[in-house]
Design goal:
Layout (H helix, E strand, L loop, with lengths): L10 E9 L20 E5 L13 H7 L4 E6 L19 H13 L3 E2 L2 E2 L1 E5 L9 E15 L2 E12 L3 E5 L3 E5 L6 E7 L6 H16 L10 E8 L6 E6 L2 H18 L5 E5 L5 E6 L6 E3 L6 E2 L2 H9 L5 H10 L4 H10 L2 H8 L5 H19 L3 H7 L2 H12 L8 H9 L14 H14 L5 H11 L6 H11 L2
Parallel strand pairs: 3-10, 13-14
Antiparallel strand pairs: 1-11, 1-12, 2-3, 4-7, 5-17, 6-7, 6-16, 7-8, 8-11, 9-10, 12-13, 14-15
Helix pairs in contact: 2-5, 3-4, 6-7, 7-9, 8-9, 9-12, 13-15, 14-15
């Protein structure tokens, strides 16, 4: 589908919600999801009330009219009265606040010096209190993309909602284990000009989040898309699961709006195929009002300066640095995936062959596990960092060649000690004699063919570099 996005007036922004890997935001309960039978069940019904403006929010009123009851499942050892709204919230989790500030600084936003926790009316049952606590942490930032700068409107820290266990038209059962997990919400400005740029923005923000202490896995991150076109209306699309789906979802929504020509904003759900379906009306400003149980939060200059000292580096920066050492792109990707950067740096200071080091750390153990049927965990227990360092030192001294490494690792993986492994190093005189005889017997072969014959004969006993040097003496 060939679309002139400028001509149709596409305006789009995204919101990313990411769980932070700490205890809960307003109590000390752990942020763990449970599968065991719950210890308690509590039944509630929620009602919509007027917010600070004196009006009832349209989305809250919509949920209220559905007249559903809610059942909340809890655990005596991992949920408490705060989640049940039977006890006031505690002070904000300072670790979660610092992680949110770290992310804010990486997004080039300006932290708020004094900020207030707000209540956002939510009566679909996912919050026992009937509202979600949220606090503005920073605003007015930006990130760069291939198509230009994208503004970051706000960074908020909020409570995640309870999770649905079952539901029908009249009753929803929620579990309290997720309620209160710290959630960072990042909202971009409506600067996104086309679907591919939306995907790029999501990937860039995702890289920043993964550099910090956030949870990983399915359900720990949610992406919403806000968009509008000329003669259409603003739509918020909830729960786009993958960055790759963002561009398809926007294109599908453009096509839907152009066909339907309807008016009135709404919230829609993202479907796995890129289509959307109606959820509820768009909420308005009436849903927000101040949280009276928590004092104002002060974000000091000292706290910000301390966080700035230890900002994590992003993967694309680390990747460029690694490749500058001579590490090939595939092994760079493997090293970053396995998060072995510190081990790599330590071994590189011992022996300057980055590609060999990544093979010893990651690739060879995997290949040995597959070939020899030894569990990878058992191999990693035996092929420790100290063992690899000792092998590299022996290589540096000329006691073994790089070509020996995989075979030696295989022996160690099977339980042998380095001292027990017999490492034969062939005398160069023997190799020279073999090369001389081979060249005389087969005079018209190329250097690679000779190389193959020598390496086959003296497998693991000489390096390719040494073979090349000797061959040069016999081939003109």
């Amino acid at each position: 589908m060939n679309i002139d996005y400028k001509k149709i007036g596409l305006k789009s922004g995204i919101e990313i919600h990411q769980q932070i890997d700490t205890n809960k935001l307003f109590c000390e309960c752990p942020s763990v999801l449970r599968v065991e039978e719950p210890h308690s069940r509590t039944r509630r019904k929620l009602h919509a009330v007027a917010g600070e403006t004196g009006k009832i929010d349209i989305a809250a009123d919509y949920e209220h009219k559905r007249e559903r009851e809610f059942v909340y499942e809890g655990y005596s050892d991992s949920t408490c009265l705060v989640e049940l709204d039977e006890e006031p919230p505690h002070e904000i989790n300072e670790e979660a606040l610092k992680i949110a500030l770290q992310i804010s600084l990486l997004l080039n936003t300006k932290p708020i010096e004094i900020t207030q926790v707000m209540r956002k009316t939510v009566i679909d049952g996912s919050n026992t209190s009937g509202f979600q606590r949220t606090v503005l942490i920073a605003r007015d930032g930006s990130i760069e993309t291939a198509s230009g700068k994208i503004g970051i409107q706000s960074v908020c820290l909020e409570e995640d909602a309870a999770r649905i266990i079952s539901q029908d038209d009249k009753e929803v059962t929620y579990r309290l284990d997720r309620l209160g997990i710290p959630l960072i919400e990042i909202a971009t400005s409506p600067d996104i000009k086309n679907p591919e740029q939306a995907k790029e923005v999501a990937l860039h923000i995702g890289e920043i989040l993964r550099a910090c202490k956030v949870k990983r896995g399915i359900g720990t991150i949610r992406q919403d898309v806000n968009m509008s076109i000329n003669n259409g209306y603003r739509v918020e699309i909830k729960g786009v699961q993958e960055p790759a789906l963002i561009s398809r979802t926007i294109m599908t929504e453009i096509e839907r709006q152009q066909k339907e020509k309807l008016g009135g904003g709404e919230v829609r759900k993202a479907n796995p195929d890129g289509s959307t379906s109606y959820l509820r009306p768009l909420p308005g400003a009436a849903r927000m009002y101040p949280e009276t149980d928590i004092p104002l939060i002060k974000i000091s200059r000292d706290m910000i300066n301390e966080i700035k000292k230890s900002l994590p580096r992003l993967k694309h920066e680390i990747r460029a640095e690694l490749e500058s050492t001579g590490l090939n792109p595939e092994l760079t990707k493997l090293l970053l995936q396995e998060n072995k950067l510190e081990e790599f740096k330590e071994l590189l200071s011992v022996y300057n062959n980055p590609n060999l080091i990544v093979k010893l750390l990651i690739l060879y153990p995997r290949e040995i596990a597959s070939h020899d049927g030894i569990p990878l965990g058992k191999i990693n227990e035996r092929v420790t960092l100290d063992v690899i360092e000792e092998l590299l030192l022996k290589t540096k001294k000329g006691e073994i060649s790089e070509e020996h490494m995989k075979a030696i690792l295989s022996d160690i993986a099977q339980g042998k000690q380095i001292s027990e492994i017999k490492i034969e190093k062939t005398d160069n005189k023997e190799i020279e004699e073999f090369i001389g005889a081979t060249v005389k017997e087969k005079p018209n072969l190329g250097i690679n063919a000779y190389m193959g014959l020598v390496m086959q004969k003296f497998k693991g006993k000489i390096s390719g570099k040494e073979v090349i040097e000797i061959l040069k003496k016999y081939i003109k």
